[in-house]
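Notes from the 1:1 (GR / supervisor)

We went over the backlog. Supervisor wanted to see one worked example end to end before approving the batch request, so GR pasted a single chain during the call. The sequence is below; no edits were made to it. Supervisor asked that the structure be written out right there so they could see what the output format looks like.
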Amino acid sequence: MIALSTALGLLTQAAAVGAVAAAALRRWGPAPAVGTPPAWPHLLPLAIAALALVPVAGCSLAMVLRGLWNDLSFTTLQLALLALAGRDWLPAGQRRGLAAAIVAAGVLLFPTALGAGPFDLYRSGFQPLPLLGVLGLAGLALCWHAPLLTLLLAVDLGAYALGLADSSNLWDYLLDPVLFLYALILLLVPQRQRAPALAPAAAAHAEQPE
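Structure output shown during the call:
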């Protein structure tokens, strides 16, 4: 029987694939008509995520990705599931603020984990009392103005407390290189604002001369 940590690891990879598909559809897919939002922009990413779990010749895309960059964080899992739900759960300001926090943490974490500097920030995740204190204060600061961010953080900490991943390092529950790169792209690439397409009746009315 598959271990829970393995199942969650594969689920996270598949959800991330579906979230990328959802983001691509939002950016480059056809605009929905007013009053008739199509179902396929929501169902297609879910189908792609499900297909990523289907083994072909004994190996699925989720398995390949897990072997490529190891398990993703529970933050990635939660954000991917929210993306698959088909709504912008976070306001634009909070979304960019979260991306900035992820990038800042990654800039501090990943170079020191590779030996840059005298202090290895990643090792602090094995004895994370100071880190837990910082995260607790951050959660209290966010709870009134950004409750969803507080909930995301609480789920990460709950998963760590329950040992749901193979890692015993708190950082692995909070952050991963794929999430860091996504957050960096989100900050650097301007977001395209796309107006919905006119419904046929509205378009015909708009074309009529006054």
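Supervisor's comment: The chain has one domain: 4-191.
Batch request approved.
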